[in-house]
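Encode chain A's predicted structure.
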Amino acid sequence: MLEFIRHVVVNRAAALKPCFIALTFIVRFILVRRVIPLRDELLILIPAIFVFAVVSSKTGFSHHLRYVLPCIPFVFIWISQLWYSASSIPPQAKRSLGVVPILATLLLCYTTFSSLYYSLHNLAYFNEVAGGPEGGPKHLINSNIDWGQDLLHLEAWIKENGEGKRVYLAYDNYVNPFVFDIDGIEPWPMKRASKLDVTKTAAQSPEIPDGYFAISINQLYEFPWPLRDRTNKFYYLDLSPLKNLRAIKPVAIAGYSIYIYSADQIRNAYYLPTN
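Encoded structure for chain A:
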C-alpha cells in the first residue's frame, strides 16, 4: 500500500503539467452546483480514475507521465460542464456563481497561452505554478522533462557562445552524441569507478580542465544512466559534486534539459562542503 501511495504521489505530474485541469477541479467542486446526475459524472470519471490508479500501482513505469495521458480526455469532458452550468444558474445566484464560466474561460486562455509560449519545448513544459520548465526538475525527471531532445540546441549555443573552448558533455540518451559530429564537444572527464560506486564525497578534487561543462538534467539529478565516450564505451558520472552543482545557477541552458556550467563553477561544486 505504501508503494502504491508513493507512486500516486509521483504521478502528481498530472496536476503540475496541465494547470487548467487542476484549477478547474477546484472551481468545479467549490463554486458550481451539480446540474448533471452523479451517475453520469461517474461514467466519465471512473475510466480516468481507473487508468490513473493502475499506472500508479505499476512500479516499472509509473514515473513516466505519458502513461497517465489517457486520463486527460475524460477530465476535459468532465470539466466542460462548467460552461453548461452557466446556463443553469438561477437568477438569484447569478451574482455569486455567474463568475464561474468567466473564470474558467480565463483559465483556459491562460493555459493555452502558457503552452504556446513553450511550444518548441513541449516535453519540458511545466506550468508556472510548478516553476515552469526550469522548476520542473524539482518535481519530476526522466522522460517527463529530459529525453535528450536538446542536443541541437546545445550545438547552436556552442556556435554562438562557445568561444572556441571545449564543451565537456554528460548527455543522457540511448544515442551516442559523438555520432553527430558536433564541433567542440568532449566526454565528461570526471568519472566514477563503476555503476555500483555511488560515493557522493570525493576523496580529493579532480583536475578540472578549462572550458564549459554541459550536463543533461537527468544526469544532474543523479538518474542512474550510463554515458558514452567517443569509442561508444559506457561509463558513469562522478556523483560527488552534483548536489552542490544543482544549487549553482548555470551560465546557460540549452533548451530546458541541458545545463551549461563554467569550469570555475564545476571546481566550486567540488570544493564546497556537502551537507
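The beta strands are 167-170, 185-187, 191-192, 212-216, 227-228, 234-237, 252-254, 258-262.
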